Amino acid sequence: MRTGTKQRVLTLLLLFFLVFSSLNAATYTGQEVMSEVYNRDSGDTMKANLIMSLTNSRGSIRERSIVQYRKDSEGIERKLMFFLAPSDVRNTSFLSFSYEDGRGDDQYIYLPALKRVKRIASDSKNDSFMGSDFTYDDMGTRHPDLDTHTYLRTETIDGYSVLVIESVPKDTAEYMRTLSWVVEGEWFGLKKEFYLPNGKLGKTLTIDTFSQIDDIWVITDMTMRNLEKNTSTRIQMDEVSFDLEIEDSFFSERQMKIGTRG
Amino acid sequence: MNKKTSLLLLLLISVVLAPPLFAGEGLFSGMVRDYASLRFEAGDIAVHEQTVDVKYEYFGDIGRLYIHPTLYSNPNEPLLFDLKEAYFDFYFSNIDLRVGKQTIIWGEAEGAFITDIVSPRDMRSFILADFSEIRKAVPAVKMDLYLDSYTLEAIWVTHFIPSSLPDQDSIWAQQPNLSLPPTVTDVVINNPTPVSSALENSELFLSLGHFSNALNWKLNGGYTWTDEPLVAGITIAPPTATIDQGYERYFFFGGSMNTSIGSTVVRFESALAIDKPMNAFNPPQVSVEKHHQVQSLIGFDWNLFGAQYSIQYLLTYTHDHHDNLLVQMKPIQEFAHTLTFRVQDTYFDDKLTAKIFAYVETVPLNALIRPSLSYSLSDGVLIEGGFELFVGDEDGMFGSYQKNTMAWAAIRWYF
Q1: By the CB < 8 Å criterion, does A8 face chain B?
Q2: What is d(CA B11, CA B49) in angstroms, rounded to the nearest whole number?
Q3: What's the whole-model pTM score?
Q4: Which of A106, A140, A216, B201 is at a distance of 20 to 30 A from B292, taking alpha carbons?
Q5: Nearest C-alpha of chain B: how many angstroms from A143?
């Protein structure tokens, strides 16, 4: 084949690929993509060890070590976290119930020094989680109906076809819009940007490591950077396991007091 | 430290250190603290105390061993050793059993004691000790039975342990509010007669709780002793009056609950003390009378702009009240109203915590206001400071300590 013909064929192939790709991507709406993300298989139960590294604006790093258990059933996401380090919060535990029907969360904290489980006010979804750059909202899965989602474009990151979705909160929120980079077909995020009401970029979430464990995609290393405060929080997960036999009764006052070993 | 204390300490260290040498999982944790306070009026350093608080947990297949010794060092005083807690936990499928010296906390109130009367209080520093340190452990057997979302708790306190009160030479000593004949110029208050260790003198408590998120509740009851002593009699031999003290028994029933209304947590707690013994002062004699007493508290907790807020209202009602009734040698009101307020916020990525906690008695108007700051120098290392401001009418519980208004500072190192 002559060089000119070769170029024409390649151009046609490329055009065909681009057109096909955009048609294929265009079959998704933003709402559909974020619903897929919300509904993707994340296991009915999960246990993981979390190391949270908080870096302040001067570069000093503090670490938090947590064991987390999660169970999703009957429209309720139950989470029980045991704090192992640092020493001043050791044996503190945190229990939360999040409801699919939109009810406010129920949250409890066990402070070993006080030997009492205390119900805590839970309107703090935008509050920092343990002084980190993650909010309670970031740590959970935000219901897609809370935002209006728009598909923007398709990109390729590390060989993955990634859909870029813009989400605008329906009610007032800390961030006026977010951009999510979602892996097509697998429905987990690779990157997220949070934009402030003045239009500036406020926070970025980057995913450094992800892997498939028990056929479920898990993000095992991610970093949230707060560009306003010049701080960052890295969360690393290990010993992740899914679909363990965990009774509903595990997510209880009793277990909060006993800790991980009971 | 005397020989007995040294031996006890040595034995304890052996017990704590021995298990990890051969098997199982042991975990040490604890805290070292240096605390000092400066009274404004007297200009003295009222306290400069070092505390070593050690916790050791040993986990086995069937349960847990927990030992919690504490050492206190004060200038020119002997080293004080306290075995705060020492117990065994046994975990079965639906039952937990705890045997040994243990602290038991009931109720929903913060800084008030309504149904929370299983463990007595250490009032030697009035109520300024940390909430975690103000409770005294009791020798007890506690069993929790779990049936779905219900918990039945039964507690047998084998020996009655009274509250610890300030010594008569302490800055926290309360002066008796008794009108004695003018010929009496000296009052001697004898230590309370101890309750013997007879089986019938043990205490029993029972609780049924339900955990359901929508509404969590507990019903409690018990047959207990007055944790603080009553005046058993006054002997007047001018110029001296001698006051004898003792403890009395009574039944109580109560309950507590918590729920959320919107994003606000609502807490409620109430207790009825049946025929609660209290003193009646008919000069020059003091007698023990029995009156029903109701204590009820409602509290609200909420967040606003990242800060935590809490308010509580406590009502104490004494049935068949008359003006001669006394508790701890102070007059009792028919209706006593107390409010508490707490505001807490964190700054600099949670490194700095600012907090104000206040108790307010409405009649007579007096208060304790406790602003404080806590800064995390590093993980587990806290530097703290604050004020204990006693204000208002000197006939009130808090106002009577106006001369003890103080500033304090502390450093804690958790390990």
Answers
A1: no
A2: 25
A3: 0.85
A4: B201
A5: 19
